[in-house]
Design goal:
6-stranded mixed sheet; alpha/beta; 2 domains; 6 helices; 26% strand; Ribosomal Protein L25, Chain P; Alpha/beta knot; 6-stranded parallel sheet; 243 residues
Amino acid sequence: MSEARRLFATELPRGGGRVVLSEEASRHARVLRLEPGDALTLFDGDGWHASATLQEVGKRLVCEAGPAVELPDDGAGVELLLAVPRAGKLDDILRAVTELGVRAVHLTDCERCVGSLPPAKFAAKLARYEGVVREAARQCERDRVPRVHPPRALLEVAAEVPDGAGRVVLAARGDQPLPVTLPPLAWVAVGPEGGFTDRELDGLERLGYTPARVGRTILRVETAASAAVVLVADRLAPAQGTR
């Protein structure tokens, strides 16, 4: 028997009941040729899911859902410290790292940042960034949508890494490979287009971040961010994962 199709539900009643899917989720269901009576799994991006049955097919599909269940969060994964990139790049970076499974993105202000997101400007754009990661999470059927944190000073953010977490900083001109294994949770710092300054690298190393290089070439920020997330995730110690 095939696995029930997973569809995103903007609102998922905790006690179960009637659920009307968004137009986007409904279009996806129609592409899958789903019919009334088909079994589904609904998820809301906040860690809850529910078994459901498709009741009505139309512009917006209607389902009958059972009680929602919260999936445990084991705290494992990769958190990205990302220097604010040049205007126009952030949406694509957020979309890519969400698809690759990042837990959270902490935007950082660095000495060589060419992008700028002052608090007032970030607040105005936050809804769009949240929409980007939520849509990407829906598309790849993630149970939890990663959080995008507002820009703060690099070393201030880096110092908040939890005890026991892995700590890696991508150093474009370094000669050390990524560690072979890392704890189940790891924070990885990716610098701006001009790279981190020596002062910033020294500060990160004092905070326990290990300088490492990815590949043999100098990567663009958007490439480095995606490579960092997928390669660091591949080195995490085994843990009971979540989507």
